[in-house]
Automatic annotation (TrEMBL):
This is S1-like domain-containing RNA-binding protein. It comes from Neobacillus pocheonensis. SUPFAM superfamilies: Winged helix' DNA-binding domain (SSF46785). PROSITE patterns: S1. PANTHER family: CONSERVED VIRULENCE FACTOR B. Residues 155-215 form the S1 motif domain. Belongs to the CvfB family. Pfam families: CvfB_1st, CvfB_2nd, S1_2, WHD_CvfB. InterPro entries: CvfB_fam, CvfB_S1_2nd, CvfB_S1_3rd, CvfB_S1_st, CvfB_WH, NA-bd_OB-fold, S1_domain, WH-like_DNA-bd_sf.
Amino acid sequence: MSIQELIGQSTELTVARKTTFGYFLTDGNEDVLLHINETHQEYEDGDQVEVFLYVDSQGRTSASTYIPEVAVGRYAWVKVTDTNPELGVFLDIGIKKDILLGADDLPVHKSVWPKIGDLVYITLRVNRSNLIYARLASDQVIQSISVKATRENFNKNVQGHIYRTAKVGSWVYTIEGFKGFIHESQRPQEPRLGEKIEGRIIDVKEDGTINVSLLARKEEVQDLDAEQIFEYLMSRNGAMPYNDKSMPEDIQDRFGLSKSAFKRALGKLMKDGKVYQEGSWTYAKKE
C-alpha cells in the first residue's frame, strides 16, 4: 500500500535523512516529511518510526509521531476546538492540525451545533484530494459499542454526551456505555450535539437501551419554585399579597407557575417554617 493510500492511518516508515526542520521518512518508494513540531524525540538515519499520515495546510503529505486514537475505520471521542458557521466545527484529534467536521454532517439548526469543549464520536474519511475530514458515528456504530442496561438501572442518574439530535428527541451515549433516547418532552431545551448532559433513566427497554429525562425530579422542581417564591417575598421586606387562595392568572403573571405548583412550593415553605399566611397575604417568619 502506498503512502497516499495510508493517509488518515498510522504506519511504520524509515528515517531517510535529517534536515534542519525535521526528517524525511521513506517506505522505500516515497518520502514524506516529519516536521520537528510533530515529534518529541530525535532519530538517526535508518531508524524505524511509527507515524500518522495526513495532508498539511500546504497540501503536502506529512507525518506525525503523535498517533491519534481515531483513524480511517477507527472511532474515538474527540474535543471541539473551534467553530465556523460557514464550514463546520474543528476537532483536536491529537496532531498539530485540527480536523474539520463539515457543515453538511452537522444538524440543520446551528443552535445545536457543538461548541468549544464538547465531545463528538467520529471516524476519519479521506476525500479525492487526500484531505482528511471527520465523520460522525452512525447509530449502528454507537449500538455496537454500547452495553445493555438492566432494570436495576431504572431511576438512576446518568451522564453522557449527545451523539445525535432532532426535533423529536436526542440520542445519548452515557459514561456507563448505555445507548439512550431523550424524547422532546423530556428536555427543557434541545441539547447540542456533543454536549455533556446529566439526567435520569425513566425506562429500560427490552433491548437494553434506555429512555432518559433531563427534567428535574418533582421534589427538585418544588425546591426551585420555593426558592423563587421566597426570594420574591424577601424582596418585598417579607410580605407579599399572594397565598394559596390567590387567582391562578395572578400567580402565573407574577411567578410563571401554575397554581398547583405554587401551592406545593408554598406548602414546602410553610412546612419548613419559613413563612406563614394571614388573610390574603403571606409573610416571612422572623427568626
